[in-house]
Amino acid sequence: MDSQHNPPPRVYQSPPLYYNEATSTAFEPFDTDSLSQHRPPTTAPDEENLPPPRYTRENDPFQLASKLKSPEEISKMQANTSRKRGCAATYRQVLPKSTTSTATGKTALNPSSRRLQGFYHTQNENIKRMLKPVEEHVRAAKEVNANNQLRYRIAVYGSFAANIILSIVQVYGAVSSGSLSLFTTMADAIFDPLSNLTLLLCNKAVHRVDPRIFPAGKARIETAGNICFCFLMTAVSFILIAFSAKELAAGSDSKTGSFHLPSVIAVTVAFATKLALFIYCWALRNISQIRILWEDHRNDLLINGFGILTSVGGSKLRWWIDPMGATILSVLISGLWLRTAYKEFMCLIGVTADTNMQQLITYISMTHSPLVTAIDTVRAYTSGPRLLVEVDIVMDPDASLRSSHDVAEELQMKLESLPDVERAYVHVDYETTHKPEHFLKKEL
């Protein structure tokens, strides 16, 4: 037999096998009878027909819980500020580890000590996150969605209604004043209801899927809709830049433009309304559907505020301040939306998940079953608003097809139950010395 197919040394030693109904570290058991559709009915309670072994609830195979630091231990930690062994005394004299405030009596830590304590606080959070059961992740996500459902509707439908009213107000302000800066804010205000409408239609389309036509779902339609809207706003901004450049080239006979107070009041009302919506959506910005609204309100605050200043400046100081402000605003709007389009493109193309999510997926895979002797590959990358996960697990080459199938299928369903995961693919290997099964570039 070729040496390439010889089983390699195991990456870590598997703990003893437990044939009980407990799951991997703090994981609730899955219904194995409903998972495996290919398993024939058992007739004898022999070892061959037992479900694949799992870790018990109390088992922590990598002893992560022992790495948790108590608040008292973290508060006593001081960073070693010396850089050279022979100069430790000098560093202690120049940069003491802590100083005591005579006014408050509290110890003030130097930046290095604060960073060290912050590191251990973050490590504690990551360890607790990995030790949390998958069911806890699912339950917490459902509770957040249930608690935020009313606030989500208020944010979406409230923003939609407010944007319709504000677009009418800003149309009046721009037309009555003739200010190019206010025309720029008007164009942005008109497209805000269209953005909300796109969001609502995409959200409904995601929940109405024909599996025969879209076997992988339509979650990426949200990302595609955001990209189309970003380029639409950019095109409008370029048109306004052209009008502003034409007015700057034509010049003006008067020193200043005309001042129209109702127009300024109309845009000020729009600014105050956007500020209230921005504050409201800020608490829900981690929801993918709300984040685009929050970013839109944030951009509108900057645009409306700057538009008011340049419009008033053109009517009180110099005429060219207004078209110049409109040009700057249009460039700013196109830059903000192109930046948003770039981020949405990256999500659609498939950028890798953040480190914390990769660590969680790796730990769940490693502690799924004692039959998993090693982890060969873990990939997690975006596919629209959620993630695709690929995991290559290593099992004993003499393991039966039934046990390999059951372990892989249970792990797939466990990973797919995570709130941020769209699909998971689990591949079973018996060694780790082979070349990767998937290439980054396919050559025809």
From TrEMBL:
Pfam families: Cation_efflux (PF01545), ZT_dimer (PF16916). One of its GO terms (molecular function) is monoatomic cation transmembrane transporter activity. Signal peptide: none annotated. Residues 1-59 are annotated as: Disordered. InterPro entries: Cation_efflux_CTD, Cation_efflux_CTD_sf, Cation_efflux_TM, Cation_efflux_TMD_sf, CDF_Transporter. Its main location: membrane. It comes from the Eukaryota. It is a multi-pass membrane protein. SUPFAM superfamilies: Cation efflux protein cytoplasmic domain-like (SSF160240), Cation efflux protein transmembrane domain-like (SSF161111). It is found in: Membrane. One of its GO terms (cellular component) is membrane. Residues 1-10 have a biased composition (Pro residues). GO terms for biological process: inorganic ion homeostasis; intracellular monoatomic cation homeostasis. Residues 367-429 form the Cation efflux protein cytoplasmic domain. The chain crosses the membrane at residues 154-175, 181-202, 223-243, 263-283. Gene3D superfamilies: Cation efflux protein transmembrane domain (1.20.1510.10), Cation efflux protein, cytoplasmic domain (3.30.70.1350). Residues 159-345 form the Cation efflux protein transmembrane domain. Keywords: Membrane, Transmembrane, Transmembrane helix, Transport. PANTHER family: CATION DIFFUSION FACILITATOR 1 (AFU_ORTHOLOGUE AFUA_1G14440), MITOCHONDRIAL METAL TRANSPORTER 1-RELATED. This is Cation diffusion facilitator 1. It comes from Aspergillus sclerotialis.
